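Record filed below.
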Amino acid sequence: MIVYACSDLIFATKVRATAEALAIATRPTRDAEALRRRLNRVDDGKGNDPVTGVIIDLDLGDAALALIRQVAADPGPAGTSGPPAPRPQVVAFGSHTATALLDSARAAGADFVLPRSQFTANLPTILQRLAAAPQP
C-alpha cells in the first residue's frame, strides 16, 4: 500500500485516482499519528496492507519534513521479530523554486525528491515503483 500526505484536494485526488486506475492500494494520511497507524498496520476496518511507499507534498511545510523523518526513523510494525524489514520508500515533491525545502527533504531522509511538475508527469511510474518495492 502507498500512503500519501497532500496539502490540497487536487493532488490528493490525482494520487488516489491514478492509483485506482493502476489497481494500487492507497490511503491518505493527515498527520503523524495517522501515519504511525498506517506504518504499524493498526486495524481500523479499512485497507491495511504493508506500506511500501509514502508520498509527501512539501507544501505541508515543517509537517512534511516531520513526516519524512518519522518514516526514516520508524522501526516497523510493533511486535515483529527477526531482522528489520526495509522501510517504505519516501517520495517528496514540491515547488521547483523552493530549493531549500527540496534540500531539507533530502536531508530529512526522502529517497526521491522531485519538483511538482516531474512528480505529476511521472505519477503512474512512481506509483508502480512504490507498489513494487519490497514489503516491510
User: Anything to note?
Assistant: Strands lie at 2-5, 26-28, 53-57, 89-94, 112-115. The first strand starts at residue 2 and ends at 5. The chain is about 45% helix and 15% strand. The radius of gyration is 14 Å.
